[in-house]
From TrEMBL:
TPR repeats lie at residues 200-233, 234-267, 404-437. The keyword Amino-acid biosynthesis does not apply. InterPro entries: TPR-like_helical_dom_sf, TPR_rpt. Gene3D superfamilies: Tetratricopeptide repeat domain. This is Tetratricopeptide repeat protein. Keywords: TPR repeat. It comes from the Bacteria. Signal peptide: none annotated. It comes from Flagellimonas allohymeniacidonis.
Length: 466
């Protein structure tokens, strides 16, 4: 009875490793060396792979395939010049070997020259038999170049070669998603399912596309078919739960999330979704239980800590909310969402100094949202520090030069700081941007609206708008 390829490879590896231990010299066919080298490289045993290449080339000095494997290792080690020199030699011997162009493409890609990599791969495609691997590599290069249309076509070719190539199928859908062509993805997946009706992956992806378009009933049907195809497919239950949540069917959503926990180890994301469903149902004790389980399962999941914090904030338990957001900050002090949440809680507690510090951390860590600038300026205003509040708003305007609310607030602060000319300039700029938001100024600074010049200006704006 003939040995299958795996048994042959195992036998060759055992023989090769025995040779290394005993210093005996055994002869192997070039094909055996290729199998041995591939085994070591695929398992991350680079040193043994290099040793096999060295001995292989000693026994078969003219083997093109072994030399190409040497090139592969050189590229892996970023020794591009040596690799390219060897490829030049090999191309003189066999100019129609597609692997030479593939390796050149690999070098270009690692040098971030993706267009050149594409050109080499297209050359390889011309001299090969429509190679599956080349289409896959092309797809990845196009993704690096943000050419999602070309990437989509390449991955579609991969799926045509092998309809069980789910990695390429995912990439096709990813390209449709990035292009926001959800209808195109739906059409493609439905076509795919015509010939692969029991593919749970395709049903799952189809459900997500329907979900993105707000077609919840169609999404549920797709996830149900995914579950029929594979009743242990956790992703389908989870996504179905999300759809049911969006439809307000929280108890049914909980059932699906609980199913994911029963099939496999519980995840923080499942606990979090269950907690939110219970919160919507008014089951505060159960919501709290699942939120606490969320952070216990994954202490680094920011959404978990924020859910606990929001839960206590909603119940006006600001001291507890502060305790949990500070726990989150102790775990990950580089998360701007934590600092922003802390700042809001400190503000509610009237601790403006701490709120000011938290907002500064929020901005320093890269959160430049409009609300952040507005709330920080309000904090400083409550402290009576008009100069600092003005500086915050000036910074905010750099990010949002067309947001009138920043100008209205800044005009009021300049006026309170007795910088009258600057106040006049800013109130006029605010009115020019959006006169309909004048009420923001009037509601925040009613005491200033009685100043003669300002009262006259406001009256004129109101007359003009009627």
């Amino acid at each position: 009875m003939a040995l299958d390829s795996n048994e042959n490879t195992d036998k060759s590896i055992s023989k090769f490793e025995s040779m290394l231990k005993t210093d005996d010299v055994y002869f192997f066919d070039a094909e055996d060396f290729e199998d041995i080298i591939h085994y070591y490289l695929n398992n991350g045993k680079i040193a043994l792979g290099k040793k096999a290449i060295q001995i292989g080339l000693e026994q078969h000095p003219n083997s093109l395939e072994l030399k190409l494997l040497r090139v592969e290792v050189l590229v892996f080690e970023d020794k591009f010049e040596k690799a390219e020199n060897l490829l030049d030699e090999l191309q003189d011997i066999d100019s129609r070997n597609d692997e030479i162009y593939i390796q050149r493409a690999n070098i270009s890609s690692k040098k971030d020259n993706h267009q050149e990599a594409v050109n080499f791969l297209l050359e390889a495609l011309e001299i090969s038999d429509d190679n599956f691997d080349i289409h896959s590599l092309l797809g990845m290069e196009y993704l690096f170049m943000d050419d999602f249309e070309s990437a989509k076509r390449s991955f579609m070719r991969c799926v045509e070669f092998d309809n069980a190539d789910y990695s390429s199928l995912y990439n096709v859908v990813y390209c449709f998603e990035f292009l926001e062509d959800y209808q195109g993805a739906i059409h493609y997946l439905n076509d795919y399912l015509e010939s692969n009706p029991y593919c749970e992956v395709a049903w799952h992806q189809l459900g997500k596309m329907y979900q993105a378009k707000g077609m919840y009933q169609e999404a549920l049907t797709s996830f149900d078919f995914a579950i029929i195809s594979d009743d242990s497919f956790i992703g389908a239950y989870f996504e179905k739960g999300k759809v049911l949540e969006n439809m307000g069917k929280y108890n049914e959503a909980i059932e699906n999330y609980e199913t994911t926990i029963s099939i496999d180890d519980p995840t923080s994301h499942a606990y979090l979704r269950i907690g939110r469903c219970h919160e919507k149902l008014g089951n505060d004790d159960l919501a709290k239980y699942y939120f606490y389980n969320t952070v216990h399962e994954d202490p680094l999941l920011d959404k978990g800590w924020l859910a606990i914090t929001d839960f206590h904030s909603r119940l006006k338990n600001f001291e507890k909310a502060l305790y949990y957001i500070n726990k989150a900050i102790n775990i990950d002090g580089e998360n701007p969402l934590y600092w922003k949440k802390a700042a809001k809680i400190y503000f509610q507690l009237g601790n403006f100094d701490e709120a000011d510090f938290a907002y500064k951390q929020t901005v320093d860590l890269g959160n430049y949202e409009l609300k952040t600038w507005m709330n920080w300026a309000e904090t400083l205003k409550n402290m009576g520090d008009f100069n600092s509040s003005i500086q915050v708003l000036v910074q905010g305007i750099e990010f949002y030069p067309e947001e009138s609310q920043l100008y209205y607030k800044l005009a009021g602060l300049y006026l309170k700081n007795k910088e009258f000319e600057k106040s006049k300039t800013k109130i006029k700029e605010a009115i020019d941007i959006n006169p309909d938001n004048l009420h923001l100024f009037e509601s925040e600074f009613p005491e200033l609206c009685e100043i003669k010049w300002l009262k006259s200006l406001l009256t004129g704006v109101k007359k003009a708008s009627t």
